[in-house]
C-alpha cells in the first residue's frame, strides 16, 4: 500500500509518500518527492497530517457497542428524572438504558420506582461508570435474583451485566461489536485493549471468524478464566490463532476497588457523610493484598501481565504494595518478568506517585473522566492530601501514561482525550487543576500507544488528521477530521 500526499514532519514543508508492506512502514519519501506507485494500492492522504495510530487502551467493547443502542440517561439529574426519560422513550416491555450518575442525587434509585412507572417491564439501567446496574422487579424475577433495592454494585453489577449479555444471541452481539470496531476506525483508532468481562480469547476468535475487526484487539482475561489461560499457555502478546494477527492475548484484569460515583473507590480518608450525621465510609477494597499477590503471581507464572483497576488512593497504595511483592520474585528469577498496569489511578498519594516509576507500573488513565468527574471530586474528595487525576505529576516522574476511554463510560475518541489532558476543561469553565495538565507532545504520545512519530520500520498503525494538533484550539482539536486510518497495514477508514 502507498499512502500518498501526507505531512510527516511539522518542521518540514512539502508532502511525503509512505509505503506500507505487510504490517510495517518500509519507506518514507523526502518532503516534496514522490514514491513509485507501481504494484501498490494507492491511498490519497489529501495533504493530511500523519500520526502513529491512536490506541484506546481501555474499552469494554461489547458494553459500548450495546450502549450505542440503549436509551441515554446521562443527562438525568435525579432518579425520578431517569424514570421520566424511560417512560418518554415509549419502550414498555424490555427497556435498556445507560449512563446514570447518582453520586450527588438526594434520593437514591430504587426498583419500586421502575415498577411504578413501567409495571411488569424488564428494565435495566446501567450507570455511567459500569459499577452499578438498576433493575426492575420483573427483570430480577426473570434472572432469579433478589435484592432489597434493585441497585447492584461493583462485582454484583458485573455479574448482572454478564447475565443480561448472556441473553443476547452471539451473532447479534458480534455484529454490533464489529460495527463498533468500524466506528472506532472512523475515529482514527487503530488498536484497543478490551476489558470486557468475558472469555475474550474465545469471543474475539469467534468474531474474527465472521470478519476481521476494524481495529487490532488486545483481549484481556479475568480471574474467572485465569487458570484456563495459564493451562493453555496463552501468554500476553501472543497472537490468537486464525485472526490474521488482529487479535492477541492481553493482561489479567483485577478489580481492586469500586468507583468514585458509587462512593466505593477505596480511599485513605473517609467520604463526607450524606446526612451529616457522622457515619463515614472509605469505600470498598474488593480484593486484599494477599489475594492480589496470589492472582498476579499466578498470572506471571504463565507470562501474563496484570492490569489492576484502582481508583481511590488506598486502592492504589495496596496495588503498588502487591506489585512490589511480585516484582521482588521476578528480580530473583522465580517468576518471568511481565508488565503491570494500574487502570485509572484517579487519586494517588504523593508518596505513591514515584512508586509507579520505581516499579515500572504503567498508568492507564482516562482524561475524559477528569472532566466528567470534576464536580463530584470537588465534593467527595475535597481537602485530600492525595492528588486527583495527577497526569503531569506522573509524567514528570517518567511514568508511562497510556490513554483510554473506558467506553462506554466516556466516548472512545482520542482527540477528546488529548484535549482534556492538555486543557483540563471541556466547557466554558476555567481549567480544573491546571497544574496537572500535560504538554501536548506527552498527551499525543500517550494517545498513540507510546509512539512519537512515524518512521521507517515502525508499525503500520497510522492515523491521518486534517491538521496538526498543535495548531488547534481546545474546541477544534476535539473535532479535527480523521482523513484515513490504517491498522496493521490494512486500510480501515478513508474519508469520503
Automatic annotation (TrEMBL):
Q: Which Pfam families match?
A: Amidohydro_3
Check the UniProt entry and state the signal peptide residues, or none.
Answer: none
**Boundaries of every Amidohydrolase domain copy:** 42-492
The record ties this protein, via InterPro entries, to: Amidohydro_3 (IPR013108), Metal-dep_hydrolase_composite (IPR011059), Metal_Hydrolase (IPR032466)
At the top level, the lineage of the source is: Bacteria
Among PANTHER family, the record links this protein to:
IMIDAZOLONEPROPIONASE (PTHR22642), PROTEIN LONG AFTER FAR-RED 3 (PTHR22642:SF2)
Entry protein name: Amidohydrolase family protein
Name the species this protein comes from.
Rhodococcoides kroppenstedtii
Amino acid at each position: 500500500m502507498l499512502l500518498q500526499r501526507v505531512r510527516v514532519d511539522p518542521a518540514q514543508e512539502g508532502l511525503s509518500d509512505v509505503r506500507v508492506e505487510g504490517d510495517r512502514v518500509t519507506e518514507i519519501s523526502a518532503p516534496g518527492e514522490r514514491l513509485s506507485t507501481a504494484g501498490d494500492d494507492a491511498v490519497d492522504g489529501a495533504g493530511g497530517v500523519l500520526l502513529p495510530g491512536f490506541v484506546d487502551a481501555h474499552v469494554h467493547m461489547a458494553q459500548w457497542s450495546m450502549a450505542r443502542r440503549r436509551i441515554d440517561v446521562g443527562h438525568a439529574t435525579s432518579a425520578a428524572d431517569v424514570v421520566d426519560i424511560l417512560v418518554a422513550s415509549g419502550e414498555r416491555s424490555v427497556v435498556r438504558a445507560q449512563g446514570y450518575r447518582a453520586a450527588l442525587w438526594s434520593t437514591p434509585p430504587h426498583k419500586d420506582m421502575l415498577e411504578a412507572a413501567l409495571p411488569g417491564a424488564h428494565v435495566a439501567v446501567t450507570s455511567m461508570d459500569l459499577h452499578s446496574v438498576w433493575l426492575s422487579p420483573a427483570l430480577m424475577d426473570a434472572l432469579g435474583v433478589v435484592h432489597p433495592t434493585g441497585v447492584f454494585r461493583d462485582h454484583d453489577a458485573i455479574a448482572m451485566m454478564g447475565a443480561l449479555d448472556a441473553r443476547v444471541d452471539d451473532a447479534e452481539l458480534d455484529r454490533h461489536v464489529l460495527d463498533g470496531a468500524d466506528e472506532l476506525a472512523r475515529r482514527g483508532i487503530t488498536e484497543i485493549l478490551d476489558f470486557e468481562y468475558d472469555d475474550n480469547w474465545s469471543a474475539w476468535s469467534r468474531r474474527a471468524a465472521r470478519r476481521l475487526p476494524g481495529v487490532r484487539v488486545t483481549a484481556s482475561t479475568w480471574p474467572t478464566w485465569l487458570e484456563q489461560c495459564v493451562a493453555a499457555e496463552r501468554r500476553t502478546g501472543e497472537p490468537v490463532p486464525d485472526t490474521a494477527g488482529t487479535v492477541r492475548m492481553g493482561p489479567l484484569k483485577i478489580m481492586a476497588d469500586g468507583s468514585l460515583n458509587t462512593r466505593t473507590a477505596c480511599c485513605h480518608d473517609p467520604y463526607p457523610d450524606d446526612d451529616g450525621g457522622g457515619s463515614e465510609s472509605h469505600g470498598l477494597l474488593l480484593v486484599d493484598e494477599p489475594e492480589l499477590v496470589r492472582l498476579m503471581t499466578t498470572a506471571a507464572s504463565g507470562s501474563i501481565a496484570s492490569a489492576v483497576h484502582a481508583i481511590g488512593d488506598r486502592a492504589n497504595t495496596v496495588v503498588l504494595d502487591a506489585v512490589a511483592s511480585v516484582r521482588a520474585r521476578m528480580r530473583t528469577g522465580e517468576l518471568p518478568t511481565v508488565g503491570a498496569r494500574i487502570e485509572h489511578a484517579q487519586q494517588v498519594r504523593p508518596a505513591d506517585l514515584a512508586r509507579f516509576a520505581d516499579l515500572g507500573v504503567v498508568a492507564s488513565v482516562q482524561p475524559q473522566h477528569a472532566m466528567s468527574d470534576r464536580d463530584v471530586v470537588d465534593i467527595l474528595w475535597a481537602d485530600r492530601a492525595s492528588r486527583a487525576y495527577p497526569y503531569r505529576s506522573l509524567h514528570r516522574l517518567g511514568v508511562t501514561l497510556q490513554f483510554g476511554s473506558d467506553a462506554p463510560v466516556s466516548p472512545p475518541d482520542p482527540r477528546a482525550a488529548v484535549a482534556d489532558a492538555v486543557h483540563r476543561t471541556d466547557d466554558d469553565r476555567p481549567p480544573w487543576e491546571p497544574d496537572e495538565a500535560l504538554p501536548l507532545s506527552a498527551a499525543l504520545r500517550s494517545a498513540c500507544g507510546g509512539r512519537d512519530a512515524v518512521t521507517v520500520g515502525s508499525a503500520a498503525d497510522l492515523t491521518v488528521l486534517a491538521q496538526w494538533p498543535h495548531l488547534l484550539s481546545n474546541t477544534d482539536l476535539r473535532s479535527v477530521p480523521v482523513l484515513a486510518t490504517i491498522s496493521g497495514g490494512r486500510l480501515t477508514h478513508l474519508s469520503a
